[in-house]
Amino acid sequence: MPIRQLSETMINQIAAGEVIERPASVVKELVENALDAGASRVEIVTAGGGLNLIRVTDDGSGIPERELALAVARHCTSKLSDDIHDIRSLGFRGEALPSIGSVARLSIRSRTASGDSAAEIGIDGGRVSPVKPAAANRGTTVEVRDLFFATPARLKFMKGERAESSAISDVVKRIAIAFPAVRFTLAGADRSTLELPATSDTPEGRLARVAQVMGKDFPDNAIAIDAMRDGVHLAGHVSIPSYTRANALQQYAYVNGRPVRDKLIAGAIRGAFADVLPRDRHAVTVLFLSLDPSTVDVNVHPAKADVRFRDPGLVRGLIVGAIREALAGAGIRAATTGAAGMMAAFRPGVAPYSHPGPIGGHRSYEAAYHASGSGGFDPLRSAQRPLDMGGPRPRRNGFAENEQAAFDTGPLASADARAGTAEPAEALLGMVLGAARAQVHENYIVAQTRDSLVIVDQHAAHERLVYEALKNALHSRAVPSQMLLLPEIVDLPEEDAERLAMHSDTLAKFGLGLERFGPGAVAVRETPSMLGETNVQQLVRDLADEIADNDTVETLKERLDKIAATMACHGSVRSGRLLKAEEMNALLRQMEATPGSGTCNHGRPTYIELKLADIERLFGRR
Known about the structure:
With about 625 residues, the chain is an alpha+beta fold.
C-alpha cells in the first residue's frame, strides 16, 4: 500500500483514541478548559454514564465569535507561548475539542463579557457546521452527545453505566480539590447530584474542600505538610497511621495544580509510610507540589496523567522526608474512627426472639426482657440467683467480674491488676494517654484522662517502642558488616554497575561493601551482619533496579529495618504478663515520647480512645 496523507477526520479520530479513552476523559478535558478560562462556577450534567450526554457550563471569559472556528481546529490554542517548557495552564495542546468532535456530536455556545450576544458552532462526527448566533449568558456551554457514535467499535470497550458515572465523579472530585474557590455541580438522570460549594484559596479553605470530597473524618485524622527544598514546595495533608484505606484511590497528588497519577509520587508515599502501615493498607493523602514549570515535563502522556521531573531524587526525598518529619512531629494520635467502631461494638444489637416480646411496649418490661438475652430468663445470670447453682459455671469474657463478687464484703477485684486505689495525680490525667488505672486480660492497659478512657495493647505498644530504639541505634552509626571469605562477583549491565559504584559510600554505611570488577560486574566483599546468610546476587540486583528507578538505596535499609522489626516483636513485653502500676505508667509515657507509637510494626493500632461524651451517649446521658 503506498504512503498517503490521512484525512483530517482520520487524524482527529486517531488523536481521540489517545486522549478520549472514556466519558470521564471528555469531562476532564472540558472542565480543564473551563478552569483555564477563569471560571468560578462549573456545572456538569451527564446521562447514560456520559455516553448519551455530557454538558459542561461555566462562567469563564468565553470565546469570541471570530475564534470559535479556530477552537475546533487541531493544534489551535490560546494557552501556550512559544516556550513548550513554560506551561502554566491545565490544557495546552489544542487537541481535545476537535478530537471529541470527530467521534461524537459536539456543540459549543459561548459569550464573552464584552459581547452583545453569543455564538454557536457544532461538529458532527468530524463535520464542522458554520458559526451561528445564539442566546447565552457570559461563559461557555459545551455539549457532547452520542459519544463514540462515529467509532462504534469503541463502545464495546466501555463499562456499565454505573461504572462510567463513577469514573466521572472521581475525575470531578480530583480536579475540584485543586480549585477550592470554584463551585462544582455534577448532576444527571444517571446519578445523585454532587455539589461542592466554593470555599477560599487558603489552607483552611483547601482543607474544607478536601472534607467535602473525602468526608468530614479526614480533617480530624490528618496531619498538615509544609516543606521546601531546592525550589520545590510540598504542601497538603496526610492521614495519621491508624487512619487507612484498603486501596490507594484516596491518594491525591497535584503538580502545579494539575492532578496526576505518578508512580514516583505513589512510591514515595508508600516508602514514607512503610514503617507504620501493614502492606495491605494505604494512607489517605492530598499533596500539592509546586515547582518551576521548566523543571517538570507534563507533555509525556496523551492524557497528561503522568509527569517527568528533572530531578526525581529531589522530589522523592522531599516527599518521604516531609511526611516522616510530620508524622514524628504530630505526636501520638488515635483515629477517631476507632472510637466509632468501639461504640458500635458496645451498642446492644437487636437479637431475634422466639418470645413475642413485651405487650403494648411497656418500657420497664421491655428493658427487663431485653436484658435477659435471646433465651429469655437465665437463672445463671439473674441478680436473684442462689449462691450455689450446683453445676459448672460458664466461662465469662470481657469485663465480667467473678460471680460472687456482688456478695463479697472485701475490696472488689475489677481487673487482673489495679494501678492503685489512690486517685491518679492531676498531672498524669493531663497527659495524652492519661494515668493507668488497671490491666485487664493480662494484655490491655486501661487508662484515664480528664475527658476520655484509653485502652492500650501493651504488646503492640512495647513492640513499637523497642523497634524505634533498635532503628535509632542501627542508623546512628555505621551498620556492622561481615567480611566474606571469598568476594561474591555479581554480573550486571554496565550502567547498573556504574550506578552501584557511584552509591558505594552510602551502601558502605549500611554494611554492604562493593567495588567495580571489570566493565559489567561488581565484587561484594562485605554484607551487613544483621542479614546473616543472604542471597547477595538478588540483593545487589534489587538495589541496582531501585537506583535506576528512584536513585535511592532504600531496599537495603528496608531489609535491615525488617530484621529490627522481627527482633522487636520477640523482645517486647508479651501478652499475658502482669504489669505493676509503675510499669504501666512508664509504658504510657514512653509511648507519648516516641514518634509513630500509635501503631505497631505491623500497622495495627496500639491504643483506642473513647471520649467521655461518647460513653455518656452509650448510657443515654446525652
